[in-house]
Design a protein that fits this description.
The protein is of the alpha+beta class. Helix content is about 25%, strand content about 35%.
């Protein structure tokens, strides 16, 4: 009798087992904790603008860029969208391959995007209020 009860308990436990991640849609953006890939150096943080009204803003965990008459685009959001796309489409994680380089007077970041080539931003510090962008959105930018 004990063996039959034990067998019934084992069958019930294994048949009722469900994956936590499937039930709660763990990878849904409401539950998925975004990784922080971007960490710009202190000297570059703030808002920068060039003579063509293009703007770049560096925060503690993001790089925002904007062309005239458009809204800001977020590098952190583009990286997250890349991760989310692969999780939703292929049910697997695909690394966004974020490469950040920080030197005394130089900062660059390169990352993968959905359906486009990698984006690369590169900046050289000219002075406390002036940087040169040599990657995406090239030009001279002034601190605002």
């Amino acid at each position: 009798m004990k063996k039959i009860c034990l067998l019934i308990v084992i069958i019930c436990c294994t048949s009722c087992n469900q994956d936590y991640y499937d039930d709660y849609n763990y990878y849904n953006e409401n539950y998925y904790h975004r990784q922080q890939y971007i960490d710009p150096p202190i000297w570059i943080r703030g808002i920068w603008k060039d003579n063509k009204d293009r703007m770049i803003q560096f925060t503690g965990d993001d790089l925002l860029y904007k062309y005239p008459m458009q809204k800001y685009s977020s590098a952190a959001d583009e990286i997250f969208d890349y991760e989310k796309y692969y999780l939703n489409e292929y049910s697997s994680y695909q690394t966004p391959n974020v490469q950040e380089v920080e030197l005394i007077d130089y900062y660059s970041i390169k990352y993968n995007c959905i359906n486009t080539p990698s984006k690369k931003f590169s900046f050289i510090k000219i002075s406390e209020s002036k940087i040169e962008s040599t990657g995406l959105m090239p030009g001279i930018y002034y601190k605002q």
